[in-house]
Amino acid sequence: MNSDIATLQNIANTLEENPLASQRFLAENANMSVGLMNAVLKRFVERGWIMLTNVNLKKLSYAVTPAGIAELTARSHKFARRTFMIANKYNDTLCTLVKNAKNDGKKSVVLYGSSYIKFLLEYACQTLNMDFEEQQINSISPVQIEKDALCIVGEMNNEDDIKSLTKKGCTNLLELLNQEE
User: Residue 140 belongs to what domain range?
Assistant: First the structure.
């Protein structure tokens, strides 16, 4: 079903750019054969997601129906809901980590390298009145780990840097969050 929704989204995007797109053009944009696209379009017509109209004797026109749009919207809502649930879970985990570090006498949180969820770390620090700083990693000079700080290595670093910093006492952000799933 998810691949059907992804294909429907692809068709909707293609038709938005080119309302008179041919079946061949739809197939090319979806990276599938014309025969498979034909079968997909028939299935989508049966489900009420796509409407076919004759432009002339040789040409059909395709349009996403309100039911098709509703299906895509429902998918977007599910994705957003799931994303917010994950973000809240990660936020709770990071707030607990920062709170425990503060209770252990740590004065700040240092993020080594980059992380997609840096904003959640910043929020946890702000909420718990802890200083937050970012340290870039470069291969020229060795990283000095601050003893009075909670040291976290971001998931966007290369594996060697993550392993090295973890050995030095940094919390591996990716491992921490994977434990929560």
Answer: 83-180
